[in-house]
Amino acid sequence: MRLRHIEVFHAIMQVGTISGAAQVLHISQPAVTKVLQHAELQLGMPLFERVRGKLYPKPEAHRLFAETEKLNRDLQGIRRLAASLKSRAGETVRLVSTPTIAVSVLPAALTDWRRAFAQTRCELATFHTSEIVNALRLGEADLALSLQDPRHPGIEAEPIAQGALMVMAPAGTWSEEECRQPIVPAALSGELIGLADGDPLGEMVVAACEAQDVHPVFQTVVQTYQIARALVEAGAGTAVLDPFTAASATPGKVQCRPWAPAISVQLYLLTASHAPLSHGARELANCIGATARALLDKDRAAA
């Protein structure tokens, strides 16, 4: 089957009529009919039963649909990529970030960058890392930020800031002397706020605890680091979080101590391989790195 055959076939399988498929594909009904007839002629068998204007797929059509579905998805991805390339504006920088960095680092970084690029359009979206990889590969974003290196052959990961895992507790939990010392897993106490299953940072914390024969019980489990931070600020418990979230917490509401043994956390600039950044995008990346490093330096000085 040719690509056009597959497009028409999938449209008919989805809507069940010639007219509906024509609307989906933005072509005429006779064109849909002609392509379908040609596809059936090539296959040497009918794919649908015609009953009062509706098309009912035969078993062969269902089998064919299952085999061609991945190809159809790939075609849609190619169309999205082509549309993205066609509509890309020279004065637009498209940035995607994990929610944590979007909240803790980007506001100040974008403010600094905007002073030099007042007329450049910036489109900002928040995704999880797996979605970020797809956005970069399809050309839907120019650069991205994550605390994870996706280790994908089509993605370049450049470390631009580094901190250490932190333990955050409500203000008044520890003495001034305790706050100057790292905290080991066995010293965790009170209500613990955990991160959802599958979260890389959460898995790192649990593994570090189990390595010291400590088995923490999390009565509250959250999906994002910002929710964990907000709960700590409200006095709901203690959480082990990345240094950027810890450094952006409301002063006076929390206390932070380094995790022991120390675990490094990197902020990565992600870009598509062989896709050089524009001048504006590179300067934005530089501002983000400088802002992230300054945020951590300020937090260390305060401690």
Structure write-up:
The protein is α/β, with parallel strands linked by helices and 303 residues long. Helix content is 48%, strand content 21%. The protein has 12 helices and 12 strands. The chain has helices at residues 3-15, 18-25, 29-43, 59-87, 99-104, 106-116, 129-137, 176-179, 200-211, 225-233, 243-247, 279-302, and strands at residues 48-51, 54-57, 92-97, 121-126, 143-146, 155-164, 166-170, 192-195, 220-222, 238-241, 254-258, 264-272. It has a 5-stranded mixed beta sheet with strand order 4-3-5-12-6, sandwiched between helices. Strands 9-8-10-7-11 form a 5-stranded mixed beta sheet. Strands 1-2 form a two-stranded antiparallel sheet. α9 (200-211) links the parallel β8 and β9 (220-222). α1 packs across α4 (59-87), α2 crosses α3 and α6 packs across α12. It starts with a helix and ends with a helix. The model has no long low-confidence stretch (mean pLDDT 89).
